[in-house]
Specification:
Shape: elongated
CATH class of the domain at 306-606: Mainly Alpha
Strand order of the largest sheet: 3-4-5
Radius of gyration: 71 Å
Coiled coil: 228-293
CATH architecture of the domain at 306-606: Alpha Horseshoe
Largest sheet: 3 strands, antiparallel
Keywords: Coiled coil, mRNA transport, Nuclear pore complex, Nucleus, Protein transport, Translocation, Transport
Family: Belongs to the GLE1 family.
InterPro entries: GLE1, GLE1-like_sf
Protein name: mRNA export factor GLE1
């Protein structure tokens, strides 16, 4: 068996030794080991020499003691040759060495590691007990280090295994969360896509419905246009036929009109001669009456001229056996208006007798526009414009249109629910373009209500056979042989007077009122000077003041206040003295109107509205 050389001690093994050992302690420890070995073996002990070096090096690597180092050198374990020089174990200090050369464990180097371990007694005997103990200690230390390393490796493996398991568990949880999240996202995506699909379907449905609606509208429009064109064509044919018939009728009427015209001229000449004669006689009578009245009466107000005062004097004229009380000037004006109205009716009667034309539709259009008059500015303008167009319509003679118009207007004035200011505004707008309509309208109004003149019919038993006959004469209506009540008559009288009062005070920018505020002032003076105080005149005066009092005060100021004083001091006193129960309410209204100065307030409805919801417009 070959000898086995000592292997080199690793730095880790050297580091495992106690680094605080001194050299003396090491020598003593080695000597103790040597003694123990020598007691059990005959192998001569190894001798170690102590040097004076302050440093001991083990393999030249580890510093054992401060200022010293211990170096242990051993030959490398080689398998190639047994004759290589052996490395010495050296303890050095500044050039001094402790050596142990040629330490062999066996005579043969052909054995393997196991054989070498089996010759341990020879090796220990060969190298000594100290070195063997050192090797054993080194081996134990190495085993402990290996155990520690294995323990640490095992702990690290366990920790790594736990960490791996934790990582796997975390990865599983992450994967599970990822799958759950993906499932939720898929559900959300499905729901969102469903919502988008529903919204898109709704949109498409709405677009389809809109297209269908547009298509229906277009179809209706096409059908309407076709119907309109067809109706237009039929109307054109009908108008052409009517024009032909009209031309034929006009030609025939023209011939008849020429004959009637000749007869009318002769009758007119005769009537003019008679009128001149009658006028001259009436002028002489009026002059004599005015001369006597001027001497015995005084004027109502100092602001009225002598000419106006003389025209306001009381006169009694007998017409058709009736006795009227009215101012002479008012009677003359009324006579002139009634004459124009009579001429208009006669002219229309001649045309009707010579023509078979039907104007019912034209009359219904006029009536409809008058019924639709409201207290709105745009409505008033539009209705006035429509009525002017109807008056100027060439398909109907203007005299016919005027007659229809005045009759329908006066008929609408009889209703207490009428809008007096709106009707008055329409009248002013119409007469500004067709002036002669004003006199015809006032004449028709005088016929319906004699207090618009103003004029009062005096009751006398010698003239009237009964009260009913008198009532018929002043305008009471009769239905199936029965007269209306006084209350109904007074309501209708009040409605007529409200329209008349609204008419005289209506002022429209850039439009001339042919029967303006000066006519209202004259009416008030004539009534107070000429008419007696009774329930009819009281209702007329009260209604007129409600409508025109505000405008009269604005224009005449103190003169109007003097008129109110005359009403309060004379008219109302006379009215109260008669003790008429029906007049008590009217008297109270007039007294409150004067005492509360209601003439300072704008009458209700005077300011026309610009539309149904916005601000008002003052005509």
């Amino acid at each position: 068996m070959g000898a086995m050389k000592l292997g080199r001690v690793d730095d880790d093994d050297i580091a495992a030794a106690d680094p605080d050992w001194s050299f003396d302690a090491l020598v003593s420890e080695l000597n103790a080991l040597e003694n123990n070995l020598s007691a059990n073996s005959s192998t001569p002990p190894l001798h170690f020499h102590q040097t004076t070096s302050s440093r001991v090096n083990l393999s030249g690597r580890k510093e054992i003691e401060k200022g010293r180092r211990f170096v242990f050198r051993a030959p490398e374990y080689e398998t190639d040759s047994e004759d290589d020089d052996d490395k010495a174990l050296v303890v050095s200090d500044t050039g001094k060495h402790f050596t142990c050369d040629e330490i062999y464990l066996s005579d043969s180097d052909d054995s393997d590691v196991e054989s070498a371990l089996e010759v341990q007694p020879y090796l220990m005997n060969k190298v000594g007990e100290v070195e063997g103990a050192l090797i054993e200690l080194t081996h134990d230390h190495q085993l402990r280090v290996n155990d520690g390393i294995r323990n640490k490796i095992s702990a690290l493996e366990i920790a790594l295994l736990n960490e791996s398991q934790n990582s796997i568990s975390s990865l599983l949880r992450v994967e599970k969360f990822k799958d759950t999240r993906q499932e939720l996202d898929k559900k959300f995506d499905t729901q969102y896509q469903r919502q988008i699909a529903e919204a898109l379907d709704n949109q498409l449905t709405a677009v389809q419905q809109d297209r269908e609606l547009r298509s229906q509208i277009e179809e209706r429009k096409i059908r309407s246009d076709a119907a309109y064109e067809e109706a237009k064509r039929k109307v054109a044919l009908q108008e052409e036929k009517q024009q032909q018939e009209k031309a034929k009728a006009e030609a025939e009427a023209k011939l008849k009109a020429e004959e009637v015209k000749q007869a009318a001229l002769e009758a007119e000449k005769k009537a003019v001669m008679e009128a001149k004669t009658k006028a001259a006689m009436e002028a002489e009578k009026r002059a004599a009456a005015e001369k006597n009245a001027v001497e015995n009466s005084k004027t109502v107000t100092s602001g009225v001229t002598q000419e106006t005062a003389s025209s306001l004097l009381n006169t009694e004229t007998k017409e058709s056996s009736y006795v009227y009380r009215a101012a002479a000037s008012a009677s003359n004006i009324e006579h002139g208006r009634l004459q124009k109205l009579k001429e208009l009716y006669e002219r229309n009667q001649v045309v009707r007798s010579s023509s078979t034309q039907d104007y019912t539709r034209h009359e219904s259009d006029i009536s409809r526009n008058i019924r639709q008059i409201r207290g709105i500015r745009d409505n008033v303008r539009s209705k006035a414009s429509e009525l002017v167009k109807l008056l100027n319509d060439h398909q109907c003679p203007q005299s016919f249109s005027v007659e229809m118009l005045v009759k329908k207007v006066v008929l609408s004035c009889a209703s207490p629910a009428s809008a007096p200011f709106a009707i008055a505004s329409v009248i002013v707008l119409i007469t500004s373009q067709v002036p002669y309509v004003m006199d015809i309208l006032l004449a028709e109004l005088h016929t319906a209500c004699l207090y618009t003149v103003p004029k009062h019919l005096v009751y006398k038993k010698s003239i009237f056979q009964s009260k009913e006959a008198y009532f018929r004469s002043i305008g009471y209506r009769e239905d199936n042989g029965k007269l209306e009540s006084t209350e109904d008559y007074l309501k209708r009288l009040e409605s007529y007077m409200k329209v008349y009062g609204a008419l005289v005070q209506t002022e429209i920018p850039n439009i001339q009122n042919l029967h303006g505020l000066q006519e209202g002032w004259a009416w008030l003076a004539r009534l107070l000077n000429s008419l007696p105080a009774n329930q009819y005149t009281a209702v007329s005066l009260n209604a007129f003041l409600q409508m025109a009092g505000f405008a009269l005060f604005k224009r005449y100021k103190s003169q109007f206040l003097k008129m109110l004083n005359v009403i309060s001091d004379k008219f109302l006193v006379d009215l109260k003295s008669q003790n008429i129960p029906e007049s008590a309410k009217t008297t109270a209204y007039m007294q409150a109107y004067i005492e509360d100065k209601k003439f300072l307030q704008v009458p209700e409805g005077r300011n026309l509205q610009s539309n149904t919801l916005s601000s008002e417009y003052e005509p």
